[in-house]
Amino acid sequence: MRRFLLQSFLYSLIFLLFVSCKTYKLSDAKPVSNSEKTVENLYFSSQEDYVYKCQMDIYKNHVSGILILKKINDTTHRVVLTSDFGNKLIDFEISENDFKLNYVLPDLDKKIVINFLKNDFQHLLRQKYPVSESFENDNSNIYLSKIDKKSYYLFFNKENKFLKQIVYTKNNKEKIDFTFDAKKHIFADSLNLQHKDFKINIKLFQITETE
């Protein structure tokens, strides 16, 4: 059964890579003068363990497990995904420029799967963003960051200053939407990661919380 689900996942990724995504336009927002030169995603900046219940929906296939994130130095995180029964599925170390695979379940050891995880987590765990332009709407301060031909729109709640959304775009096309719910600036209680160019949705829900 597990092998069937993994094969379905791979076929679905290949098929859905050909689905086009929409041009991204920032709506109901007005430009403002740059008040910040750099903004940060601090949700994974602590060196404590971040432990989440993980749910992945991949083209009608559902996979669940436990995801552990840990910052092991200034630039690198370790990411471990296990099954609900504690069996390790994948273990890797990742930074903005490097990726080291420590272990992967043989059924998951496919280039397309590894690249998918590498790219998603490099976007998710990026901490610092240089600000190119600034905007605002009724609820958010919005910062556009352009890095190596990639663009990120970061939405910060005006009231509590917490990061609530990152929209990653490439060639003006929306690629991934990261939405956060948090009570602390260094810990996201939940995360919803939604791909726009193929049907992959990852949801993380808090199990343990940093102090």
Task: Please identify the top-level CATH class.
Answer: Mainly Beta
Overall form: globular
Total count of strands: 15
- The second-level CATH architecture is Clam
Could you tell me the CATH topology label: outer membrane lipoprotein receptor (LolB), chain A
Reading the helices and strands in chain order gives: HEEEEEEEHEEEEEEEE
What does this structure look like?
This protein is mainly β and 211 residues long. It has one domain (23-208): Clam (outer membrane lipoprotein receptor (LolB), chain A). Helices cover 14% and strands 50% of the residues. It has 2 helices and 15 strands. The chain has helices spanning 2-16, 111-125, and strands at residues 30-32, 38-40, 50-58, 61-71, 77-82, 88-94, 99-104, 128-130, 133-136, 140-147, 150-157, 163-170, 173-184, 187-195, 200-208. The strands form 2 sheets. It has a 13-stranded antiparallel beta sheet with strand order 1-9-10-11-12-13-14-15-3-4-5-6-7. A two-stranded antiparallel ribbon has the order 2-8. A hairpin with a 5-residue loop joins β4 (61-71) and β5. Mean pLDDT is 87; it is low at 14-20.
